[in-house]
Amino acid sequence: PTGYFTRRETVLGDLPYGGNHWTKTIGFGPDGKLYLSIGSSCNVCIESDWRRAAITRYNVDGSDPELFATGMRNAVDFTWNERGELVATNNGRDEMGDEIPPDAIYITTGGEDFGWPRCHAGDIPDPEFGGPDACDGVAQPAFRIPAHSAPLGLTFYNGDQFPPDYRGDLLVALHGSFNRAEKTGYKVVRIRMEDGRPVSMEDFITGWLVDNSAWGRPVDVVVGPDGALYVSDDLFDAIYRVTYEGPR
User: Fold this and answer.
1) Contact call for residues 134 and 117 (beta carbons, < 8 A)
2) Containing domain of residue 192, as a range?
3) Residue 37 — φ and ψ, nearest 5°?
4) Which of 63, 105, 135, 243 is an S-S bond match for 143, by CB 3.0 to 4.6 Å?
5) Tell me, what CATH number does 58's domain have?
6) How many angstroms separate the CA atoms of 215 and 30, rounded?
7) CB of 161 within 8 A of CB of 177?
């Protein structure tokens, strides 16, 4: 192999586009299938296309489309844990105040409805599309993150460059709020895991937010083959390499 692409073909065409959340995330699962996340077209609404606010699954050639999980307003990134479960970030709706609804980490094995637009974060009925039974039967978040933090990229740390107790923990980029009186997010957090489930969150990288003014916004986090963490920033237009120095 020369390392150069010789042919391009369309695997998935005619995908929904436009609206508030137009980005698309792809990943290949442990089952060998192709997974695709497309966010909602709006802050809160009834979608006309079943592929929006959802994660769909396909054969690698794009055939046999199926709905994997739905009710996810904007699952910007996803990965898989050691159990083979899909783990995704989710950005909650706006215009319900500074403190609700929280953003979330979802864990799914397929078939779940996480509630959007009628219910948020598992137990908060939507003021427009909800009702007394809005949250009945809704899948619960695995972990809640402060509202408007905007969790985007996530990764399990599986390298050897950091101290051993980091292995298996989740690192998440919080892009940061745009519509909150006191800004939140603008950092990378470490979510500690126990028995495959998130139990606590702590700051891992901060400093992009100074006196409620931001000079950077983390987007994605990736563990490199060297064990370092690589962080992208779409405000400062940079990629940072994060390494550990100190006792182990």
Assistant:
1) no
2) 148-247
3) -110, 130
4) 105
5) 2.120.10.30
6) 38
7) no
